[in-house]
Amino acid sequence: MINVMQIRLKMYLLEDIPADKVQAEMAAFIDKGLVQSVRLAELHNENRYKGYCFDSPYPIEADKIYRKNKIYTLTIRTIDPELARFFEKQVVNGYTNTMKALTSEVKIIPPKHIDVLWPLVPVILKCENGYWKDTLSVAQYEKRLKVNLLKKWDQFYGEKLAEDFEMFTGIEFLNKSPIAVAYKGIRLLGDKPRLHIAENESAQRLAQLAVGAGAGELNARGYGFCNYRWL
């Protein structure tokens, strides 16, 4: 089973940041730290899953503007011990034009039986024809989420899991309409699905992986970060 490492950074903002731009700003902050390491710069530049995810800074302001000269908490999770050490020891010393890190706090999220996952930031699934609801059923959406996690497992652990198992016993969408997010000058549509996890071993492995590396796509851009409830 997987040990997920969670790093909480205290972030001091040097400029106001609108909520719809904060994920890109946080990603830029993390990227700046990663490229200082030759090995991690290669990871950053490779077209592959990165093995980490992060949420939106907390607390969220009522008017959706993160304020200059205020301190917020950014939570990063990873399944890679090297990345965890880097976030703890090196990224905590980083800064950009809009923010700087102050302190870090690390803990291990142990592998326990997960009952439910729900994203704190939207889950993104890119489809050939745009938003998934235009072409896929809910069952197909669930399958895409499962296949995405299977691919991550194969990449990170070099092991192909058999696909003939139940992953989700139920799904509820917490958003009534698609959630638009900014990415590379365009807007993608995402969702916040509450995912009820099956009890079999493969489903539990992938659920733990989702906690540490994110659900769906663009996890290293700040999407698909999931909270969890143990059984």
Provide a descriptive summary of the structure in words:
There is one protein chain. The chain contains 5 helices and 12 strands. The chain is of the alpha+beta class. Strand 9 and strand 10 (186-190) form a beta hairpin. Helix 4 crosses helix 5 (201-213). The protein starts with a strand and ends with a strand.
Number of strands: 12
Number of helices: 5
Percentage of residues in helical conformation:
25-40%
- Which stretches of 5+ consecutive residues score pLDDT under 50? none
Biggest sheet, open or closed, and with what strands and sense?
4 strands, antiparallel
Overall geometry comes to: globular
**CA-CA gap between termini:** 16 Å
How much of the sequence is in beta strands? 25-35%
Please list the strands of the largest sheet in the order they lie side by side: 3-5-1-6
Could you say which structural class the secondary elements and strand pairing correspond to? alpha+beta
- The Cα radius of gyration reads 17 Å
Helix/strand order: EEHHEEEHEEHEEEEHE
Q: How confident is the prediction overall: mean pLDDT? A: 92
Write the layout of secondary structure elements.
Elements: E1 4-13, E2 17-18, H1 19-34, H2 38-45, E3 52-54, E4 65-66, E5 71-78, H3 81-89, E6 99-109, E7 114-119, H4 138-157, E8 168-173, E9 179-183, E10 186-190, E11 193-197, H5 201-213, E12 226-230
Antiparallel strand pairs: 1-5, 1-6, 2-4, 3-5, 7-11, 7-12, 8-11, 9-10
Tell me briefly what this model is.
Helices cover 29% and strands 29% of the residues. It has helices at residues 19-34, 38-45, 81-89, 138-157, 201-213, and strands at 4-13, 17-18, 52-54, 65-66, 71-78, 99-109, 114-119, 168-173, 179-183, 186-190, 193-197, 226-230.
